Amino acid sequence: MASLTSPTLLAPPAAVGMRRVTVLTIDGGGIRGIIPGTILAFLEKKLQELDGADARLADYFDYIAGTSTGGLITAMLAAPGKDKRPLFSAEKVNEFYMENGPRIFPQRYK
């Protein structure tokens, strides 16, 4: 058994017969959620250029998780619509923040 002080090299999942798991995590930060929203919209646009207009970030990750405002973004990216496809595109995240951000994240100090 390896000790806690000596590093143990692990083989990549494919080398031991396990499937690779992809995880997208999104940090919190209030109205600053517009920053990951912008990055995710760019990424989704590039994926759509490769795989078609219906491509959504949820198609590329096994798990999507977030804290605080990252959790809100996660819900938007992963919530299924009637067709069982993601209800919102990543592009809609920033539209949501621009429209609803001031009500959700009011300024505390003026």
From TrEMBL:
PROSITE patterns the record matches: PNPLA
Gene Ontology annotations of biological process type: defense response; lipid catabolic process
UniProt KW Hydrolase keyword: yes
Intervals of motif GXGXXG: 28-33
Location of the PNPLA domain: 24-110
Alphabetical UniProt keywords: Hydrolase, Lipid degradation, Lipid metabolism, Plant defense
Domain of life: Eukaryota
Pfam families the UniProt entry points to: Patatin
A single GO molecular function term of this UniProt record: phospholipase activity
Listed EC numbers: 3.1.1.-
InterPro entries: Acyl_Trfase/lysoPLipase (IPR016035), PNPLA_dom (IPR002641)
Motif GXSXG positions after renumbering to this chain: 66-70
Top-level enzyme category: hydrolase
Domain writeup: The nitrogen atoms of the two glycine residues in the GGXR motif define the oxyanion hole, and stabilize the oxyanion that forms during the nucleophilic attack by the catalytic serine during substrate cleavage.
Entry similarity comment: Belongs to the patatin family.
Function: Possesses non-specific lipolytic acyl hydrolase (LAH) activity. Hydrolyzes phospholipids as well as galactolipids. May play a role in disease resistance. Lipolytic acyl hydrolase (LAH).
Protein name: Patatin
Native organism: Panicum miliaceum
